[in-house]
Amino acid sequence: MSEHIDAAMAMEVISLSDREMLRSSLSTTLVKDGDHLAAFNTAFEVFFSIRSWESAEQLMGEPDGDEVGQEGASGASGPGQSRGEGGGASSSLSAQELADLLFRALRDGDRTALRRAAGEAVDRYAGIEPGRPVGGTYYLYRTLRNLDLENLERRLSEGTVEQLGDSLVERLARDEARSRIEALKAEVEREIRERLVEDRGAEALAKSVRKPLPEDLDVMHANREEMAQLERALRPLSRKLAVRLARRRRRRRRGPVDLRHTVRRSLSTGGVPIDLRFKPPHPAKPEIFVIADISGSVASFARFTLHLVHAISSQFSKVRSFVFVDGLDEVSRLFDGVDDPAEAVARINAEADVIAFDGHSDYGRALVSFHERFAQDVTRRATVLILGDARNNYHQAHAEVIADLKYRAKAVYWLNPEPASYWNSGDSIIGQYAGYCDRVIECRTLRQLEAFVGELA
Amino acid sequence: MSALDPRVELAQRLGLDEVPPVRFESPADVLTRLANHDYLSDDSIASVTFLADRLAKPILVEGPAGTGKTALAKAVADSIGARLIRLQCYEGLDESKALYEWNYRKQLLRIQAGRPEGSGSEDWSHLEEDIFGEEFLLTRPLLEAISATDPVVLLIDEVDRVELETEALLLEILSEYQVSIPELGTVRAKQIPMVFLTSNNTRELSEALKRRCLYLYVGYPSVERERDIILARVPGISTTLAEQIAQVVRSLRTLDLKKAPSVAETLDWARTLVVLGREEIGAQDAAATLHILLKYQTDIERATKDLLGRAKSVA
Q1: What residue ranges in A345-449 does DSSP mark as E strands?
Q2: How far is the alpha carbon of B289 from chain A, nearest alpha carbon, in Å?
């Protein structure tokens, strides 16, 4: 609430005709987390699109922005009409001319020219149909496919390199070209979004472009791009978690009186121990056994959890990791002496020997095998984490193994990346195991995962 | 100005005789004045700084290490001719280091000095009043910023390092510009200081703190801005070299490194190349001086391989 008041107050002191100023004022008062800025910017583009801005300026009779303004005004006058006009305008340019226009705009780094060229490209290739409820990505894909960006990129990087031979100079030119192409993509995306705003209205579009934050993405159903986002989000997440836990441990209740230190301090008060000193605490660190299903759909979830647990391994006295599909293998050694858990996690798939028969998950077999080989290591200090959806392909459950582990260990937790409503449907037998676990936790997003791991330490 | 003007309101609350004049005319004014003090800002930095002054609110600056968060506070202080008061946060920072502390040695001396003359009880009450006077107060950065009469900029550096509980110490200052001292009463600001908080985002700051601040994210600069920063800060560098340096650094930041090069390190590298008398970077020079930009051996190896397209030569 107080953020809204701040935003309103900011509106009082700025000049509202300055779009960039409006953007920064709103973002500084309303957004308080760097990771959320991208979401804010998308929303801002939807509600304060450049086109609507320009047409508003025209209405106010602003003298500048003559030619660009006209484009905006005609665009705003109605979706059907703008479509017709757009089609007419683009026919005057051949594909080759358009490519040249783009190339020149990119080469000279001319923003207005780039905007116009992107507009032309969208006119020509996107084929936006009014009222059709498809996402902007579809049009984006259609436009970009027709633009032959690879060719453009090549021309750009060749155009700027004078003396070949130096690998660094070449590389820089390539990176420069790539970043300009990225700028073009962003421009095209913006252009498409603005047209969709015209077509469907800002409210409707705002709904469809709303994306969950990376930490709220469903790990099991993430597409490739979202997966990359998750990977990126994981590293700072684990770092933050490690810092927080280390602090909490240090701050926890103080230990016994430190006699040496107390006597030393008492000298300044004439030998009277006024100021008691305490030894730093030594809370017991738990041992962790992670047993993870790495078959198919739950594999990514297992990877994230292993990454997170090992990232904070300094908070545990020992972490041992096991992965299985229908056979089980210990992978703790992969994490030994590796600074970055991500590297070790990446090696698991290649190096772990987890397939005994047909490569379909068999929880029963894996658990029995764990029990035979490692059960004697599970003591009262150990916490066992089992990761998986308990989809057992109708094999035997062998739930008695879990019962025995619970008897031996301090606690047994089961993390299930499926939504709780799917549990026990089909071949999911989580119910048979649940009775023997201390807790079965639905863990679908990084946020839930982080909360759980934080509790553990 | 309407009655809603936060500066007027705050001045009334603090009991100031007059509303302090605004420091910046417009965002463009911020831009030019910071540039005069060799700090190249961008649109968002300039407009947030402008707003912070107008709304009399602190700015929380967040972003990766070495992107000029602290430098921003310094440059603002320079450009408005104010004194910079800096509170470096660390784990275990407490009230007596951040706000104020009673100078108990001096208090003891005062008590002992008073002893020989009388031993009556009325003397004690007099003494008690006396030893909790401002004379015996050691001001720490926060109190100093509040009680200063000359213009000051308060910089609370790396606020994410203090514990969550300690953050609460800051809240009164940030929203009310005052400090309550139980024995003395409330000390109100004599002017409206500009306040900057910086954070490297090692942990989430509390909602209460974020709510009281304007938020500014300072990321790595664009190639153009970084080039201009190099040109402004490194004397005698050619435009082509600055441009190339900025491009190399951008490429490095896209690699998956343990620690991406900061602006400060970029400047160090630029200075090195100038001292070496280079007009352009070749792969050879880059390989030989990469250790100035990158601080991990694995990073250097990776960058050499990826950027220069060969295994690391004998450096």
Answers
A1: 382-387, 411-416, 439-442
A2: 14
